[in-house]
Amino acid sequence: xxxxxxxxxxxxxxxxxxxxxxxxxxxxxxxxxxxxxxxxxxxxxxxxxxxxxxxxxxxxxxxxxxxxxxxxxxxxxxxxxxxxxxxxxxxxxxxxxxxxxxxxxxxxxxxxxxxxxxxxxxxxxxxxxxxxxxxxxxxxxxxxxxxxxxxxxxxxxxxxxxxxxxxxxxxxxxxxxxxxxxxxxxxxxxxxxxxxxxxxxxxxxxxxxxxxxxxxxxxxxxxxxxxxxxxxxxxxxxxxxxxxxxxxxxxxxxxxxxxxxxxxxxxxxxxxxxxxxxxxxxxxxxxxxxxxxxxxxxxxxxxxxxxxxxxxxxxxxxxxxxxxxxxxxxxxxxxxxxxxxxxxxxxxxxxxxxxxxxxxxxxxxxxxxxxxxxxxxxxx
Amino acid sequence: xxxxxxxxxxxxxxxxxxxxxxxxxxxxxxxxxxxxxxxxxxxxxxxxxxxxxxxxxxxxxxxxxxxxxxxxxxxxxxxxxxxxxxxxxxxxxxxxxxxxxxxxxxxxxxxxxxxxxxxxxxxxxxxxxxxxxxxxxxxxxxxxxxxxxxxxxxxxxxxxxxxxxxxxxxxxxxxxxxxxxxxxxxxxxxxxxxxxxxxxxxxxxxxxxxxxxxxxxxxxxxxxxxxxxxxxxxxxxxxxxxxxxxxxxxxxxxxxxxxxxxxxxxxxxxxxxxxxxxxxxxxxxxxxxxxxxxxxxxxxxxxxxxxxxxxxxxxxxxxxxxxxxxxxxxxxxxxxxxxxxxxxxxxx
Amino acid sequence: xxxxxxxxxxxxxxxxxxxxxxxxxxxxxxxxxxxxxxxxxxxxxxxxxxxxxxxxxxxxxxxxxxxxxxxxxxxxxxxxxxxxxxxxxxxxxxxxxxxxxxxxxxxxxxxxxxxxxxxxxxxxxxxxxxxxxxxxxxxxxxxxxxxxxxxxxxxxxxxxxxxxxxxxxxxxxxxxxxxxxxxxxxxxxxxxxxxxxxxxxxxxxxxxxxxxxxxxxxxxxxxxxxxxxxxxxxxxxxxxxxxxxxxxxxxxxxxxxxxxxxxxxxxxxxxxxxxxxxxxxxxxxxxxxxxxxxxxxxxxxxxxxxxxxxxxxxxxxxxxxxxxxxxxxxxxxxxxxxxxxxxxxxxxxxxxxxxxxxxxxxxxxxxxxxxxxxxxxxxxxxxxxxxxxxxxxxxxxxxxxxxxxxxxxxxxxx
Lengths: 380, 348, 414
Fold this sequence. Notes:
The structure holds three protein chains of three kinds. Chain A is mainly alpha-helical. Chain A has 14 helices and two strands, in the order H-H-H-H-H-H-H-E-E-H-H-H-H-H-H-H. A two-stranded antiparallel sheet of chain A has the order 1-2. In chain A, a hairpin with a 7-residue loop joins strand 1 (190-192) and strand 2 (200-202). The model of chain A is unreliable at 1-33, 349-353 and 357-380 (pLDDT under 50). By secondary structure, chain B is mainly α. Chain B has a single domain, classed as ABC transporter involved in vitamin B12 uptake, BtuC. Helix content of chain B is 72%, strand content 2%. Chains A and B meet through helix 6, helix 12 and helix 14 of A and helix 4, helix 5, helix 8, helix 9 and helix 11 of B.
């Protein structure tokens, strides 16, 4: 699931700060380029295989699953998670966390409902406001992480709590107003067609595909390479400090925008309920990890992360096929995520960053970010 | 981070006073000051509103509020010191409370076996966490998230809410007070002291700092990093197990739904508030206790002012971020004086 | 390699040990899978087996209470039907002369939370009622503690109220029945008149326990409606929010009891966490596998999403059991479905305040104040929609606050 090649000593140069005489990696790493796309993405085929196995299993238990309408409904439901996974990927590959996405999804739906109050003509304006709010949240997350040097785990955790409380403070605790029909069309509607026995090709599916394409393109730009470099070796990337900060902030902004889009899709799909978004951040991170992206950064591909999301939804679906008590579902989910990451760690050719995320040989990776006080996740 | 280690690596580890300990003291002192400051400001605000933050009722509330989260946060400190973390604590608390209550069945004679079994279950979870992280090489976020989910499914299926009952004698743990100090808080402080002694005085404690600080050096020093981490996770889950006992004592029964109370993220927040670095290697249990104290004071002030519960969330989130921002800055300042010219671009 | 396998086995062994130890040592004399029985019996082959067996037994089903509640639905409550929050079913009066107060009193309230729209609606109503009594000089201070659904915190809140010595009456809406019992008992012992409402506790030390008829009646109202309006052999899907919440478990237990005696086929019961997207997804999957003729819900959260699933799939609407939540009622009106809205009388939030007033006046109050709990049927629908015309969609129709001063803005501008 993960790459065959260890990522570079991320911050290993700075690892044991100052006075220690440590047999650590040296700064010559600073000049090494982050692993190329091929190396980075290699090994993510595992998730596609896993996805295939699970889909096949579902089909085996229920032949109707592969009928176009059923499959399409499945992808339609999964679409918001795919979008969220893409956004979370950008943040995780840069070595950070974004725990605020669940709250942000909820907040955006509530904001939409309150501002729209069911009026169709307000839809475009409200969408613009939502996008603006998403950008703002991402900016704040990014600034707190880069300027205030707060680890992103904490910064986004704080943002999660603030968003949760602030939105409910604003609406008196429960969502008020209503989502307009036009707004809901995005998540609920689609292009009506009779193709393959479908009733519609949902907009959400098309949007998820578009997001995937855009994300792949982004990763191919220098911005994308910088993102990976951040995940790989913040020290190396630090040589252009401004660029580093901007890139990091941009990653958070994109994650928040993805959450905003996911909110639009979920609000459209599911309607207005009071617990929208609860716990989605963990689901998104799980999806990304399933897709072979290493927590701590530098590895994996965005498509694999989205495939991880699809796989997770497929697992939920498969679970239902077994007619076990629904209450066992979390257990199955837990076993799968542990098994998936364990498997990735144990593939023989891999030297994957695991606890304690230290280079075991000079020049090998430390994707958790070696420095104390580094604004990297605590436990990749 | 290496400030925690003696300068030269490949020798038998010896506990020694290091700059890091001094630095930790500095940070810990600051957290305690922050605690006092929070109380002072809260006192004034409540006074203005016509209340008294130092009233018996409020004193009890603040101290009681510290005990439950305190146990969990002390345990969380140990794993975070080792550069790990534990997201399964909430589930361990719930499970331990259920095992204790269903074993006890209201009978004081079965108290000991109930407690032992409850703590045993907790320790096993910690062992599992530690093994999954070290031997299966799964990162802690996923590993503990996974074990937590596994437990959740089991609890939801088998217990579906409250179950069991504790004996009256055991309930004392949850309700007895010495003057205005709850017994549970006293026990929590004792546990904290024990944890501090373990960290400062024992070889295991030393190894935890080492492992979190720079495990490569630790390994070269002959420290068995895996065992240390596993020990940390077992201790963390044990602490959560004690919290579960407290729950059982206060509720009179075990309750699966405790896992919804946010103990995992709150404990991490308290640890970070207390000055322990998320990246391990530096920190203190005393600081964590102060962090728990700050949160408890905040909660009590909010209650006294009858603040909208949603506003509470906003303030808590902001406090956590601001506090860490302050500590992070402090650490930056401290280090930058040493580090600026050691390696080009290595400056944090 | 061998070490690796050994280690993995070690881990698995450990986990297995953990599970086994808990399993073998535990005595599930009370905890049973009341929800699970029906699923296993009915769910094995995609829904065959129906609701014929698996009638609920165990912690969340007490036959006597069940029978009692179902009977109470048919009893005429005492008091004026125009003020249902003051009505009582078969009240037994408790004497309150000892608590009589001269002048205004301090009223304290330990609230479980305002974490869902039902509670938020009720909280606004309660506050409005307090305002009225404050104007009248009955209450001079209203102190509130919100426990945010944290039992441990609520215990502390209650202890703090008792310790403060300032409360002339203490209203408690417990977060969980069993776990709050010791705290309520301690409050009673302190001599303060204690009023418990909404969820109960396992003691009757309080002066009055205010609640609508109960969960069994709620669940039965819906289940009976489905039985009456569906042909034998029709399929029903049960949607539940969370396991382990006693008020919800009682509702499901009653429904299971009724379904067991019917010829309806229960496709399954699913936990949804009240999330709209989740609900829609689950319902869609069941629709894909066959007809779903009826839906039973243990609470109305996300009812609209369930109905939309049928729309999106292009199939006929089912017979529906919702709740008096406005979004559902409006959808009901709009689509013309066959439905019923069981009610967990939101107006019960007014009664504790009025009970405090009575207690301070030394007037007797029912020791168990059972409020009426009448579901909204097709016939009442139009009326209630009109009365709640401009209310937000997550408002509850039977909030009982139309005559309070803040109506309608207090609820609209929440």
